[in-house]
Amino acid sequence: MPAVRDRQADISLPEAPVARARRPVILGTLALRPDPTAEQMAINSCLDSGSPLVIVNSVQLPPYPTTMMVGGLGAMVLPHEDDREAVAQCADRIASLGIEVETVGLFTPRPVRALLDFAGRRSPGLLIFGPLLSEIGRLRMRLAERRIRRDATCLVWVAPDG
What we know:
Strand content: 15-25%
Radius of gyration: 22 Å
Helix content: 25-40%
Number of domains: 1
CATH class: Alpha Beta
């Protein structure tokens, strides 16, 4: 009859998990307040993963070279044109839930490309694209969505359907 073998001595303890940097969640919009479903998706994703949230408001600059020379970048887009207050209120609501929030404004002639470049530099875990569909229009939304899904280097969720 074989002897009983104590396997407890053969088992090594698992190593402690390596602490990795959390990849942020990016909530991108195009000069509009975020869609409520996109905002909720961002909140849920950040709470589940413990990741910080970066709200990116990408604003298309109008081609006014004289205004740029005379007034600078600040004169190109007025605060009410890019819904800055609504984006700040969204950031405050999310921060009140205990989520680390950073708000970034991108002023560029090509807002979708700028959003993708920003996301490429920050290497997010999730890119949520969620401008209000009622304000942006279906055609512009479809073109932006197609480009983001094609060129993004991370997981993409597009509001309102996902």
